[in-house]
């Protein structure tokens, strides 16, 4: 079972009250305004009684109601009808990884470029090969893989301070680890040119947790 977390960007609603539970094999349709912006993430190892999740927790509740998830967690980000009327979407590992996740458009019109209307994803379970210094351990084993920013909180790893610049903030060995295993996902903050998808004329988006 996965508990889904949903957080709208400022000024945008938190769909489904911010979350719901999904059993294995179960599907759910979520309706969003045509210009919605926000993030969606999986929460794992959730206790139905305490409502606490070991990864991606948003404050011990099923419906996050505006609260974000505690990293590390795999993340889907989307902006509907953004600049030039294009949808922008991606799977991000900038906050780390907890389970494989994918997102793709249905009925979109591609412009033929590499990142137009394609499937954004992290299909590999990084918990199996996560570097030892990035592992999030529990009695269940390795349940998540931290990003270098989350693990070390340095300006260089987090692309902040003097490194808050695409020319200065470069992919670390840890970001390269994420990218090598999940090439269609963001691995660090300035990975836009190799992870951000765009599309237009989309009927709906499919998101799957694996």
From TrEMBL:
Gene3D superfamilies membership: Thaumatin
Keywords: Disulfide bond
Residues of the signal peptide: none
Cystines in this chain: 46-53, 58-64, 117-199, 122-182, 130-145, 149-158, 159-169
InterPro entries registered for this protein in UniProt: Osmotin/thaumatin-like_sf, Thaumatin
The name this protein goes by in its record: Thaumatin-like protein
């Amino acid at each position: 079972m996965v508990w889904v977390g949903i957080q709208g960007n400022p000024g945008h609603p938190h769909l489904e009250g911010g979350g719901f539970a999904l059993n294995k094999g179960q599907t759910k349709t979520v309706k969003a305004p045509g210009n919605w912006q926000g993030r969606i993430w999986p929460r794992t190892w959730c206790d139905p009684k305490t409502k606490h999740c070991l990864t991606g927790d948003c404050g011990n509740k099923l419906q996050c109601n505006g609260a974000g998830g505690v990293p590390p967690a795999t993340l889907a980000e989307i902006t509907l009808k953004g600049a030039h009327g294009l949808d922008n979407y991606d799977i991000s590992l900038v906050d780390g990884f907890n389970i494989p996740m994918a997102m793709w458009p249905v009925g979109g019109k591609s412009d033929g470029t590499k990142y137009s209307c394609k499937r954004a994803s992290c299909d590999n379970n990084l918990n199996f090969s996560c570097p030892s210094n990035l592992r999030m351990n529990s009695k269940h084993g390795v349940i998540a893989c931290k990003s270098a920013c989350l693990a070390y909180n340095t300006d260089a790893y987090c692309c902040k301070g003097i490194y808050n610049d695409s020319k200065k903030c470069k992919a670390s060995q840890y970001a390269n680890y994420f990218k090598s295993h999940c090439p269609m996902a963001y691995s660090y903050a300035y990975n836009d040119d190799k992870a951000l998808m765009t599309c237009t004329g989309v009927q709906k988006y499919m998101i799957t947790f694996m």
